[in-house]
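Board notes (copied after class):
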Amino acid sequence: MDGNCMFRSIAHQLDNNVEEHFKYREMAVEHIAKNKEHFELFMEGEDEGKYQAYIYSMSKVGVWGGDIELAALSEALNVQFYIIKETHEIINIGNPEADTVYLAYSQRKSHYMSIVKIHEQHKPLLKSSQEIIPAKSQKLEETKNNSKENNCQHELKTKNNNSENRKIEIEKDKGTDFSSIFSLDEKELILWCVNVGIIQKASRCPTCRSKTGKTFGLRLSGYKNCFDKYVWRCQKRDCGYMAFIRTGNKLLEAFSRIKLRILLIIVFSHFAFFIPSTVTMKTFRLGPKVIKRLYDLLSTWIIEFQKVDEILKGKFGGPNSIVEFDESCFFKRKNNTGRILKNIWGFGFVERGNGRFFVQVVANRTSRTLIPIIQAWIRSDSKMVVSDEWRSYTQLQKLGYNHQTIKHKENFVDPQDPQIHTQTIENRWGQLKTLMKKRGKFSRISFPEKIKEMSWRIMNRMNIQEKLLEVIKINIFNFKNL
């Protein structure tokens, strides 16, 4: 029961190989992402952040799947799921006329198992999926209405009593201006983090609720014995409940002995402004292991965030869009001197106008490698797709693409049609290689991940602070409410 049991059971039924479970997880996530208008009705919370956080969480191996993923797979695979529970309740999800996948579900263990139908004459007692999913949706709708009433009572308003007779208000339009972290005191910094979503405020006291049934809110209070000097305390005076501000925050808990202000400065100075790690270590007198662990953690979050973001945005191009694509070589020798290095090829494309940039490391530049990537990521009804005259692209016209080429030995821009050029993608390659040189040395094993991170930086260079904040907000909390 590693969290993959449902997908393992489906892989056993369809492929007779439980190790293919990741394929069905990716299929379910992709189908949910592409059909947002349908599936967001069955999730708690209607905002974009909740939906994106749900997709990001479910894309991770080990996260438990449920009815939403079964409904998505039933539509994507055109199958019906026949589920038998411990209580002998029988549930059918999907089209009853499609092929059947038989599963058993233990509610006590929260575990799915694959079962084989022995008697052909046995007919399932069908229960339409339309009777199942809306029932869950109705329950979630009631939960949302109740949560909205409770949240109205716990809006973030900081009022200091008696000795502190002033109100601290953090304007929302300054929420992504990280220069403010230098001027705020410790209490104001915590409130700023709450406002932008980096720190999650504990909304109610569980002790009072369990004893009296009444709900008491929590307030930020000073506590000298705490590392951060502040904790969340119950508003009821005779209640001794308190909660640390870092509780439930993966980033702050992982670096519990680093001051909040210093941690934020390290994160945003390096990732938003690319301050070298050596400067950070000397400035704050931190060891290289701590800095590397922090950088690796955030790099992993960025790569996973970008993967989900690409799925949500869909394919490149469209009837009014022009897409350029090209391949570029990394780790090559200069002037044929030095030791012989094995070339690493990157294949990328960029959409003019919106600046979307995609990069993928490929084993070679053959048509068998590049054409499937183009078909998977670029729409065939695009206004134009432009490349150089590399021979692997000759099949694109037959596949329905309006493919135009430019011969670089003669011109960089077609004199007959100025729209035919690859200057945009060539510019991206130059930015990418310059940025990777600034990053310093890294192993060939980590190269595919690093090139993804650098492409994310280039694509979001104009609003890097907002995007970085979005990445952190999605990753730092446990998704218990989803």
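Comment from the instructor: The first strand starts at residue 79 and ends at 85. DSSP finds 16 helices and 14 strands in the chain.
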